[in-house]
Amino acid sequence: MKLSNYYIPTLKEAPKDADTLSAKLMIRAGLIRKLASGLYEWLPLGLRVLKKVENIVREEMDRAGACEVWLPVVQPKELWEESGRWKYYGKELLRFADRKEADFCLAPTAEEVMTDLVRKDTSSYKQLPFCLYQFGTKFRDEIRPRFGVMRAREFYMKDAYSFAATDEDASAWYQKMYDAYQRIFTRCGFEFKAVEADTGSIGGNFSHEFMVLADTGEDAIANCPACGYAANTEKAEVLPPEAITINASDLKPMMLKDTPGAYTVEDVAKMLQVSPEKLIKLLLFTADGKPVVALMRGDHELNEFKLKALLKCTELEKASEELYMKVTGSSVGFAGPQGLKEKNPGLQIFADYNVQNIMNGVCGGNEKDKHMINVTPMRDISVDRYADLKIASPGDKCARCGKEFTFTRGIEAGHVFKLGTKYSQAMHATFLDEKQMAKPFIMGCYGIGISRVVAAAIEQSHDESGIIWPAPLAPFDVALVAIDYDTNSEVKKYADEICATLEAKGLSVLLDDRDERPGVKFKDMDLIGLPHRLVISTRTVKDRQCEYKKRSEKEAIRWDLSEAVVKLLDVVRK
Ligand code: ATP
Ligand code: MG
Asked: Residue 2: beta bridge partners?
């Protein structure tokens, strides 16, 4: 492919609103352009990478025995009502009406449509198990689209759905997909890790996320160096601290203190000269409409997923300022748990295990500008249940083996879920078993953000000059830079010849035949990041030579033109 005929609009500078390294490089290298918030156009070079990822994923889905289908991106409301998600999916679901005023949404995922498709044609256990997958556009009206195509509103996904008659078959499909994902991300050339994860709005009861490891990743991962447990910190189970022995003689009487204007943990700790570990934060939520209190140590963050799982509720929302006033009698920063049960019959109070060990601590005084000191929860607060409610953080230990966690960051590239019968039951999607009994399908679902994978590859592999594609994802295998292509017929002859031979051997070659200064050509090629570069110029041709450089290495070496093709094939195929 000649660059002069190709469309690669590279830029010297990234636009101001590009907020992450991969977004900047994808725009500068001419892979994508932004149309509007969270909406991107894919240009030829970007699309080639997207297709490379898609092909790897397709090959591995097929190898695993899944069958490809193609479903509409516009989905009818009725199916979402059957699953109950029309109500619960929230504002990420883009809803609209057609000319007949019938309601539809744009697919953020396809559990409903796939379940509907399968129930129409599958009636017997003899037809099971199987797995269907598709590639397609997904739309999620993300609250904060960011990081370029990594958190876009419209993006490209592979989603697969398995249907089984028995738990064993369902688990076997989960494992097949898990193994396929291992192969996919290995083939992409990634450093990655499969971690246990929360099941989020997809629901279900078990899931793993495949994380591409990168310091810039949005997700934090807790790893146990001893037992190998690894989980998203949204999910990671933390070992409860050992309960301390509380001696009554060490406890001081509770007392209300003035803390004018101090309502953040830092301000209160500073004003009362105590460490944040002594503070008890009160967080008020509504769980399916009912108020619920969670207590956390001042220096710990509440994990809402854990609270939600504990409450088994479908909707957990932060309480409004009015509700704080109603339940506690004060605003957020001065709310405390003492006396709340008496004031609010039926109110449930949950606390993180670490709160149990606070002695002579501090909490809100339930009055403006006041805090209560010398609070000892075991003595002073009626808590319904102590539980693991914190987001795992440095210092925390693994709940399974007690060793201290290490932390890394990652980009979630894929997700596998065991769904069980959540959708099939709600949507009455059943088959007849051996005894002619109607049973709901046991399902699994498996997503990979194909467009996010492209950005993740860049986050993991780049330098100050630009992208360094892992070879399997590179848009072209070889950059052939011809200097003086238009003015030196020998350069042109060799460049054309080598390009044609390499292409005939099955490599993809981007031949830079433009009338540009060498510096411009090298900069562009470094930015685009093709794994191998061959330079042919008046200078090298004089010696019947060319220059070879790997994108990831600094030094170029000289090769005789007569051996260039053989040597290049050799390095590419290594
Ligand atoms: P996240 O926690 O990042 O929002 P999710 O759990 O909502 O992801 P899934 O519903 O499991 O994501 O979707 C499957 C895959 O689709 C994810 O693993 C991710 O690679 C990709 N994906 C999800 N949301 C986006 C988005 N807004 N932009 C690009 N890719 C996305
Ligand atoms: Mg999401």
From this structure: 511
Instruction: Determine if the peptide bond prior to 276 is cis (ω within 30°).
Output: no
Reported as a pLDDT band with limits 50, 70 and 90, residue 202 is low
Listed residue (265, 557, 198) closest to 412, CA to CA: 198
Pocket flag, ligand 1, residue 293 (CB < 6 Å): no
Structure tokens at 355: 């709160």
Contact between 215 and 409 under an 8 Å Cβ cutoff? The reply is yes
Distance (angstroms) between ligand 2 centre and the Cα of 412 equals: 10
Q: Which two tokens stand for residue 55?
A: 């092909």
Would you say residue 201 has pLDDT above 80? no
151 lines ligand 1 (CB under 6 A): yes
**Could you give the C-alpha distances from 556 to 89, 245, 424, 479, in angstroms and in order?**
54, 68, 59, 14
Query: From ligand 1's centre to the CA of 108, what distance in Å?
Result: 9
Q: Is the pLDDT of residue 543 over 60?
A: yes
Note whether 336 and 366 are within 8 A (CB). Answer: yes
Q: What number of other Cβ atoms are within 10 A of residue 115's Cβ?
A: 27
Residue 349 has φ and ψ, to the nearest 5°, of -120, 120
Ligand 1 closest atom vs CA 209: 18
- Going by pLDDT thresholds of 50, 70 and 90, the confidence category of residue 246 is confident
- Which positions ≥6 away from 36 have C-beta within 8 Å? none
- Per-residue model confidence (pLDDT) at position 243: 85
C-alpha pair distances (Å), 103 with each of 75, 81, 137, 449: 9, 11, 19, 27
Q: pLDDT tens for residues 457-484? A: 999 999 999 999 999 999 999 999 999 9
- 548-571 burial, b at 16+ Cβ within 10 Å, e below that, comes to bbebeeeeeeebebeebbeebbee
With a 6 A CB cut-off, is 207 part of the ligand 1 pocket?
A: no
> What is the signed CA dihedral for 522, 526, 530, 533, rounded to 10 degrees?
40
Distance (Å, rounded) from C-alpha 300 to C-alpha 258?
24
85 CA distance to ligand 1 centroid (A)?
17
pLDDT digits (tens, 9 = 90+) for 491-530: 999 999 999 999 999 999 999 999 999 999 999 999 999 9
Provide the 3-class DSSP secondary structure of residue 395: coil
